[in-house]
Amino acid sequence: MRAWPTTLRRGWNSASSLWVLLSVSGCQQVAQLIGEDRPIVYVDIRERDPALAGLVPRPAIEAAMKEVLKDLPGYSFRNAKPGEVAHQIALVVEQVTERTADPNAGSKHGSTNLIRSLGVSLELFATGGDRRRYFAEALAVKEVPRAEPLEGLVMDAVQKAGLELRLALELEKEDDQKIVELLKSDDASRRGRAIRIAGERKLKDARPNLELILKNNDEAEATVLQVIGALVQIGDPAAVSALIDCGRERGQAYQSQIIFAVGQLGGKEAQAYLFTLESGHPDPTVRGVASEALKELEARAK
Q1: What is the pLDDT of residues 55-73, one digit of tens each?
Q2: If DSSP codes are grouped into helix, strand and coil, which group holds residue 185?
Q3: Under a CB-based contact definition with an 8 Å cutoff, are residues 74 and 34 in contact?
Q4: Contact of 154 with 183, CB cutoff 8 Å
Q5: What is the share, in percent, of the chain residues with pLDDT greater than 90?
Q6: pTM for the full model?
Q7: How far is it, in rounded angstroms, from Cα 30 to Cα 53?
Q8: Could you give the CA distance from residue 172 to residue 15 in angstroms, rounded to a whole number?
């Protein structure tokens, strides 16, 4: 048993400390199984926007974080020993929403219920030496009676983010070929994490599988945008054709992101595409974005 230092913020100008006891035996057992035991010495809980302060019960978040820390492989919540790299984990409340349930949208009890959502993110990082950072986020949505407390929703959101963080730690150990293969996975979480890692590692071999995702018109918008970002990180101009095709198929919603991506990747095909948009696209906004992207591309080519 040991204390848990937690920063509580009410706005951004002040902070106070809260001490919460945590049993770490579960986390230590998992760590021992895989031969690692990195120390997490500090947990930070805060709101992305000061306006969210106080909306989510702090004890509920702390209880949920205890469960996450018990099952985080390779890490223990403890003091760092001499020579060890200390780690911190931050939980950020990203959004909190609440609205009356719509009986026409399938709600069983209509306006007597609420639709609540809670979005959170987790980031695990070293305080010195080892600079690896692991990020996860989750959104929990539930229809609940008006009088129901938030504790259940909080536990759902934080545990979902915890599972994503565990997945990030697991896949970080996989080799490049495995990451490329996971881009075809039917598991949305594993595929999404593989997209992120492919971009971070700049895996050129991932480009064909990333392009296949772009060609699937049933893909969610968030996934498509994530793939576009990964292709920009990888930086292979050979992806320009697939991005241009994606823009034609998917239309206006993705246009600005695709124009930016094409400009960043560069090459003759990218230059010709941006010039065509700048010169003849009927939407002045698109012409303006293309013009800026073309100027940046040409400036880098000098």
Answers
A1: 999 999 999 999 999 878 8
A2: coil
A3: yes
A4: no
A5: 63
A6: 0.73
A7: 34
A8: 34
